[in-house]
Design goal:
There is one protein chain. The chain is an alpha+beta fold. The protein is built from eight helices and eight strands; from the N terminus they run ααβαβαβαββαββααβ. It starts with 6 loop residues before the first helix and ends in a 13-residue tail after the last strand.
Length: 287
Amino acid sequence: MSDDPRAGARADTRSDAYAELAAVGPYGVHPGHALITMVEPHPGHEFAYNRWYEDDHYYAGAMAMPWMYAGRRWVATRELQLLRYPDKSAVAEPVTAGCYLSTYWVTEGRYDEHMKWTVGINKRLNRDGRVHQARTHVFTAFQDHEATVYRDGAAGPRDFHALDHPYKGLVLEVIDAEGPQRRGELLEWLRSRHLPRALAGAPAAMVTLFRPTPLPGDRMTYVKQVEGVDTRLTLLWFLQEDPRDCWEAHFAGRDEAVAESGLGRVELVAPFIPTVPGTDTYVDALR
């Protein structure tokens, strides 16, 4: 018998199930699903929240899990928060709430398997006291990928590269269709007509479109159930410029074009820049 006290702990993690699970099912690179989560740390807890998320939760609560293969964190300084609109948002109240955004890709066809793991690991993290409580989930949802529209056709990074490519900014746009029966029309209008025009000559290389899915009933109690499951679309604009440098020319007034279509209404347009992993850069600029 081994005298190594760690041997038992290691033995508990050895299972043929890992090999069996890896041998079946989809394992492509397409981002079939996403976790998009916008969070507001409570006042006075900004530094503690940032260190907890970067030093522990980003890895133990996300990237270490099966089928979640890419991730990136984004931040909205106060200057960026003040660019958001509309003032009366069904997503964020006030519209400036949610200064951190995390985005993750999940392998297409692996949503159910990932959800079982994520619920289990988050219950364990809570039991072990490894969850920062001084925060509010403003907009958190797992989402199914609907489309990606590219500015430059086949040239440049694909959507599965988007969270690893060094984009300089991201714009989160949330649109609600005028009723469940209109979401398909809204999606088609965005994909085939509106977004190709908006991307022409723009600093955004691509826009990914997702629709939210309901969270499981055994989710963590601090995460509210997803709203707008039947009507909502979530757009992520990946920018090659700082959003502050192109806001007025390319993003101010996006709600007007959608309203004129008669298919939906913009509930949030919010710019972010990437965090600098392992640092507290921008934390002192949130308020």
